[in-house]
Amino acid sequence: MNTLASATPSYKQNVLARFPLLSFFILAIVISWLIALPSLLFGMPFKLFQTAGAYGPLIAAMIVSAALGGDELKSLLNRMTNFRFRLGWYLLAIFGYVLLYLLVAALSGAPLAQSLADKWTLSFTLYLPALFTSYLLNPIGEETGWTGFAVPHLQRRFSPWLSAVILGAVWAVWHLPGFFVPSEMGAFNLVSFIFFMLISIFVRMIWIWVANHTKGSGVAAILLHASSNAVSLALIPKLLPAPTPDQMTISGLLLLGFLLFFAVLILIFTRGRLSYKENIANSVG
Q1: Are 278 and 156 in contact, with CB atoms under 8 Å apart?
Q2: Is 94:229 a contact under the CB 8 Å cutoff?
Q3: How many CA atoms lie within 13 A of 245 on its CB side?
Q4: With left for phi above 0 and alpha for psi between -120 and 50, is residue 269 left, alpha or beta?
Q5: Domain boundaries, the chain
Q6: Under the phi-then-psi rule, with left for phi > 0, alpha for psi from -120 to 50, and beta for the rest, what region is 217?
Q7: R_g of the chain, CA atoms, integer Å
Q8: CA gap 197, 45 in Å, rounded
Q9: I want to staple 143 with a disulfide (CB 3.0 to 4.6 A). Which of 4, 51, 221, 253 is the partner?
C-alpha cells in the first residue's frame, strides 16, 4: 500500500508537467490566435492585437514552467536576462541583418550605392533607435517562449538540428493569422506559406546556433528578432526606393537562398549540433 501511495502523485501528475513541450506549443498558439480574433473577425487594426498576441508564447512559457515547478521559472528568467556573452555576438545580432538585407538589395538590382551615399546616416538616426524601442516589444514576448522555454527543452529531447526544424515549423504555424490580414503577410496560399515555413526553419537554425554560443541567452535571440524586423520594416523601406514586383520576387528568393546557405554552413561545421553543449540543457530546471 505504501508503494502504491507513493507512486500516486507521479502517476497523477498534471498534463502540463507530463507533456511540457506539447502543452507549451498548444498554449502559445491558442492564446495568440484568440488575441488576434477580434481583428480577424471584425476588421479592427491588427497592430495592437499583433503586439498583444506576441506575448502568447511568454504567457505559455510561464504557465508551463509554473506547472513543472522546481527552479523552472527561475531558470527561464535567468536565460532571458543573460547579458553575459561576447561583444562579437552582440555585433552579429545587431548588424548581421543590416548586412544581409543590403546584400540582398544589391543583388536584386536596387540602387544601393546611391542610396547609401545619400542616406547612410539612417542606420544611426532610424535603425538603431527603432531597434532599441518599438521593435523590441514583440520579440520580448515571442523569444521568452521560443528561445527561453522551447529551445532548451527541445534540445534535451531531440538533436539540435531537428529542434530547429520543429520550432521553425511551429513558429510558422503560429504566424498563420497574419496571412489573413492583407496588410501583414499577404493573402494565404500554400506556396507562400511553405516558402515562409522554410525561411522560419533556416532562421531558427541560425538563431539556435547563436543562442547556444551565448549560453542559451534570450537577449541574443531578442536582438536578432528585433533586428530582422527593424531592418526589413523600418530601415530598408526608407533607405531604398519601393521595389518592383520582379525585384520583390528576386529579393525573396535571394533571402531564402542566403538563409539556406548560412544554415547549411552551420550544420556542416557543427556536425548538426549547432554548437550545442550539455550544460545548456542542464540549465533547464
Answers
A1: no
A2: no
A3: 0
A4: alpha
A5: 83-282
A6: beta
A7: 20
A8: 25
A9: 221
Q: Who's near 68: CB < 8 A, 6+ residues apart?
A: 16, 17, 20, 285
pLDDT digits (tens, 9 = 90+) for 120-139: 999 999 999 999 999 999 99
List the grid coordinates of 209. 546556433
The DSSP secondary structure of 143-169, one letter per residue, reads HHHIIIIIHHHHHHHS-HHHHHHHHHH
What is the pTM for the complete model shown? 0.91
H/E stretch holding 193 reads: helix 190-213
Closest CA to 43 of 154, 183, 165, 148: 183
Q: Which residue blocks in 44-189 are alpha helix, DSSP H? A: 46-53, 56-68, 72-80, 87-107, 112-119, 122, 128-131, 134-145, 151-157, 160-174
pLDDT score of 30 = 97
Residue 275 in 3-state DSSP?
A: coil
C-alpha cell at 263: 544554415
Task: Give the C-alpha separation, 146 to 157, whole Å.
Answer: 15
